[in-house]
Amino acid sequence: MHAKPSLPDQAVLHYGDGEYAVMRPGKFVICAVSGKQIPLEALRYWNPRTQEAYAGPQEATAQWKKLNGQ
User: Fold this and answer.
1) Closest by Cα among 53, 34, 58 to 42
2) What is the mean pLDDT of residues 53-57?
3) How far is the C-alpha of 30 from the C-alpha of 44, rounded, in Å?
4) Spatial distance between the Cα atoms of 15 and 13, rounded to a whole number of angstroms
5) Is the alpha carbon torsion for 23, 26, 27, 31 positive or negative?
6) Which tops the pLDDT comparison, 1 or 33?
7) Residue 8: helix, strand or coil by DSSP?
8) Interatomic CA distance for residues 6 and 54, integer angstroms
9) Distance set, CA 64 to CA 5, 54, 70 (Å)
10) Higher-confidence residue: 2 or 19?
11) Contacts of 20 (CB under 8 A, 6+ apart)
12) CA within 20 to 30 Å of 35's CA: 18, 29, 45, 46, which one?
């Protein structure tokens, strides 16, 4: 289940392996770790299992460690 956007222009995406599908158009998504807005054209990191987006490699790695007990 996807959360409804809470900000104007916030997109809703379904994250897959290596690609994502736009469920609701927008200009950005929110990083699950930092809370930063990530412009869709800059989105490179996400987790299809948890359906979370990450602002960059540091956030993605931190969340991976948290989820995997590292």
Assistant:
1) 53
2) 98
3) 13
4) 6
5) negative
6) 33
7) coil
8) 18
9) 24, 11, 8
10) 19
11) 13, 14, 43, 46
12) 18
Structure tokens at 6: 């809470």
Written in H, E and C, the secondary structure of 26-54 is CCEEEECCCCCEEEHHHCCEEECCCCEEE
User: pLDDT tens for residues 6-49?
Assistant: 789 999 999 999 999 999 999 999 999 999 999 999 999 999 99
> 60: part of which helix (H) or strand (E)?
helix 57-67
**DSSP secondary-structure letter at 13?**
E
In the numeric block, which tokens belong to residue 50?
A: 């948890």
